[in-house]
Write a structure and sequence with these properties.
- This is AIG1-type G domain-containing protein.
- InterPro entries: G_AIG1, GIMA/IAN/Toc, P-loop_NTPase.
- It holds the Pfam family AIG1.
- By secondary structure, the protein is of the alpha/beta class.
- The chain folds into two domains: 3-195, Rossmann fold (3-Layer(aba) Sandwich); 208-266 and 287-335, no CATH class.
- It contains ten helices and six strands; from the N terminus they run βαββαβαβααβααααα.
- It has helices spanning 15-23, 68-81, 100-113, 137-142, 145-153, 177-194, 208-254, 259-267, 281-311, 318-331, and strands at residues 3-8, 42-48, 51-57, 88-94, 121-126, 158-160.
- Strands 2-3-1-4-5-6 form a six-stranded mixed β-sheet, sandwiched between helices.
- Helix 7 runs parallel beside helix 10 (318-331) and helix 9 crosses helix 10.
- It is elongated.
- It starts with a strand and ends in an 11-residue tail after the last helix.
Length: 342
């Protein structure tokens, strides 16, 4: 499965150029114009340094004269190109002053994609040749408070390229697109591991049929999670309920003078097994034992069910629900006791 990467940025940031630099070939048309060159979303998939990448080039969503009515369908097309959702957003900025205009672009990105998009974002600076000699991009970022805050919201992830000047031989080990590309790919690899391959989604831009499909899937998953947690609780509860009953029986056997007291304890769970007197206590205990075993299992199962159901509420999968339910019943096993400790 390829890693899906969406490039975002204002016109002139160099999105198409960067996409070509990453893929190592001219697959996206580049324009030298003050107007937005890319007028619709385009995706291409290639193998890059042993990884499969799908890059989605986008028009200058937030800085052209598009109306809001035109913008939303284009964003929907963008997300459709990388369905079921992008793993990474590349937010492109030029190595230049971070002005109010750039901040407005970031604000619009967050408005339309939500702040959650920044959790999947990498800030990529283009026109790296404008960096002062010997300066690294982290130092450049640190000189601007707003820029520093933005990079921090993106998990500290930032890289720099120069699509024009850093492609030749004789470049140093920093001002070199191949060096920067490998560092960028390692950042993407790390994101994929940390997020377990998860991707960005936004129901606002999903077609109605996809929303319904996800709702049904969500309900089904929640049911399976609750079922797994509850069933685990019932089974373990029944086991500990019977174990508690056996504890009662063992104490009675070891101390015959306690027969009447223990039989009365058992008969509280099985009223039909009434005891007439101490002379028939042992016989009554035998009759009650079968009924009490079932009753103890049922009582334990009910208790385990409650523990398992509560514990599985925060689970994200059936397996996690089983684990949480198991832990909850183990921690609460003392509540299954029928007799007070000696």
């Amino acid at each position: 499965i390829p890693t899906r990467i969406v490039l975002l940025g204002k016109t002139g940031a160099g999105k198409s150029h960067l996409a070509n630099t990453i893929l190592g070939e001219e697959v996206f048309a580049s324009y030298h114009s003050p107007n937005s060159g890319t007028n619709k979303c385009q995706s291409e998939t290639r193998a890059v340094n042993g990884r499969r990448l799908t890059l989605i080039d986008t028009p200058g969503f937030f800085d052209t004269d598009r109306s809001e009515e035109e913008l939303k369908p284009e964003i929907m097309r963008c997300l459709t190109e990388c369905a079921p959702g992008p793993h990474v957003f590349l937010i492109l900025l030029r190595v230049d002053k971070f002005t109010k205009h750039e901040q407005q672009v970031i604000t619009k990105i967050c408005d339309h994609f939500s702040e959650d998009a920044l959790k999947y974002a990498v800030i990529v600076f283009t026109h790296g040749e404008q960096l002062q000699e010997g300066m690294k991009i982290e130092e450049f970022v640190s000189k601007n408070k707003n820029l520093s805050n933005l990079v921090k919201k993106c998990g500290g992830r930032c890289h720099v390229f120069d699509n024009k000047h850093w492609n030749g031989e004789g470049q140093d080990d920093y001002r070199n697109n191949q060096v920067q590309l490998e560092a960028f790919l390692q950042t993407v690899d790390k994101m994929m591991v940390e997020k377990n391959g998860s991707y960005y989604t936004n129901e606002e831009y999903l077609p109605p049929q996809e929303v319904r499909k996800r709702a049904k899937t969500s309900v089904s998953n929640e049911f399976l999670i609750q079922l797994a947690g509850t069933a685990t609780g019932v089974l373990m509860g029944a086991f500990f309920g019977v174990a508690a009953l056996l504890e009662v029986v063992m104490k009675v056997v070891k101390n015959p003078t306690e027969v009447m007291k223990r039989v009365k304890t058992l008969t509280t769970m099985a009223p039909a097994a009434a005891v007439a007197g101490s002379e028939v206590a042992v016989v009554a205990a035998g009759v009650v034992a079968g009924i009490a075993t079932v009753t103890a299992a049922a009582a334990g199962g009910v208790r385990g069910c409650a523990l398992g159901q509560e514990a599985s509420k925060e689970a994200k999968s059936p397996m996690e629900a089983i684990e949480k339910s198991f832990d909850a019943v183990m921690k609460g096993r003392s509540t299954f006791r029928m007799l007070p400790p000696n």
